[in-house]
Amino acid sequence: MAQSSMDEISDTGAFVRSASTFRNWISSDPNSPFPPESGRYHLYVSYACPWASRCLAYLNIKGLNKAISFSSVKPIFERTKESDEYKGWVFPDSETEVPGAEPDRLNGAKSIRELYEIASANYTGKYTVPVLWDKKLKTIVNNESSEIIRMFNTEFNNIAENPSVDLYPADLKALIDETNEWIYDSINNGVYKCGFAKKQEPHNEASRQLFEALDKCENLLNLMR
Q: Which residues have a catalytic role annotated?
């Protein structure tokens, strides 16, 4: 059965995000089933999704847009099947229907949901973007944006146009990881915890954490001017 964010509400009324399901890694290791080959992978995004947009930003910053193709779905959820009421990311019928969105030329899918079902007939999780797709094996490599950007940063340097650009330098990894942890929990995911909370108490707590984290960001930025 199709799931959405509304299915991720705990007994207390709080939003609890489920973990991404496809967590394979592209690697130059000789034993890797997913080697970093030019033209093999495709990134499915939505310009309306911040998680997907950061992957697209990495793709362009690293100069991988010639090695890894990408396409965007429509920015507003629509029904994905006639057989149920689930609404999710869908592809347009033509390139002129919605600016920036285009039909799925690789698999002929009508929705992101169909891609997940191609990759796993028994999949029961959410149908999210980004999706890093393997054209050769016709499957999803990874749908976790934080891991996709790490792969783009290091695993494709032999074919990247900007291999010297390192957005996760060794001397800053610990600080980046520490900062990402509270930014993700309180801001990136925090807005979802505020918006999807079904009871006032978890909403208030998520809001408190969100604004405390925003103040913390403001203080850090002031120190770095």
A: 49, 192
Domain assignment present for 162: no
Residue 79 near residue 85, CB atoms below 8 Å: yes
The pLDDT tens digits for 127-161 are 999 999 999 999 999 999 999 999 999 999 999 99
Whether 31 and 62 have beta carbons less than 8 Å apart is answered as no
pTM (predicted TM-score): 0.92
Both 150 and 176 in one domain: the answer is no
Burial class (CB in 10 A: 0-12, 13-18, 19+), 83: exposed
Residues 92 and 145 in one domain: yes
